[in-house]
Amino acid sequence: MTNRIAALIGVVLLAGIGALPQSASADTIKLGNDQNTWKLGNNPGVSPLMVPVKPGDVIEIAVRGTHGLATLDNPGNQASPAPAVDLSHILKCGEDPASKPNAAFQEICDSRVGKNLTLSMRVVVLGSFSQDVHFWCTEHLNIMVGTFKPAP
Ligand SMILES: [Cu+2]
Q1: Cis bond leading into 48, ω under 30°?
Q2: Residues 63, 32 contacting (CB under 8 angstroms)
Q3: Cα 45 vs. chain centroid, distance in angstroms?
Q4: 22-150: CATH superfamily
Q5: Which residues have CB atoms below 5 A from the ion given as ligand 1?
Q6: What's the whole-number average pLDDT of the chain?
Q7: Using CA atoms, how far apart are residues 124 and 91, in angstroms rounded to an integer?
Q8: What is the whole-number distance in angstroms between the Cα of residue 144 and the centre of ligand 1?
Q9: Residue range 5-35, pLDDT digits in tens
Q10: C-alpha distances in Å from residue 44, one per residue of 67, 114, 136
């Protein structure tokens, strides 16, 4: 316990003097929709939407209307080869990590009991995330697409 506290103090001190790179801090990435396009934070919606993320970041996906997110094997707006849903990129709640060795994201399984309910899902970016992962809307398919990209 003492070691953990000492390590924590060390991190705080390093952060205070700017020794830690910017990428050391995890961010919450808010992914939403603007009609039938994805949008990042308060920016206008575009398709395809590029979403820079890094390991440790939490992606919170909250939509208005009927939309959902599914990862793909190819860019969602690509003609050939046509994209297909490929959920091997995301470890869903309750799934055995061994069943998806290539997963770059993991769904966060937080209990909502006793909290205000929101129509959202959250995933955390895993340390294995190192290359583009494409996605589209489960309802609007190739007209509502995006890509999670390694943050520079
Ligand atoms: Cu949609």
Answers
A1: yes
A2: yes
A3: 17
A4: Cupredoxins -  blue copper proteins (2.60.40.420)
A5: 67, 137, 139-140, 144
A6: 88
A7: 10
A8: 6
A9: 454 444 444 444 444 444 569 999 999 999 9
A10: 17, 33, 17
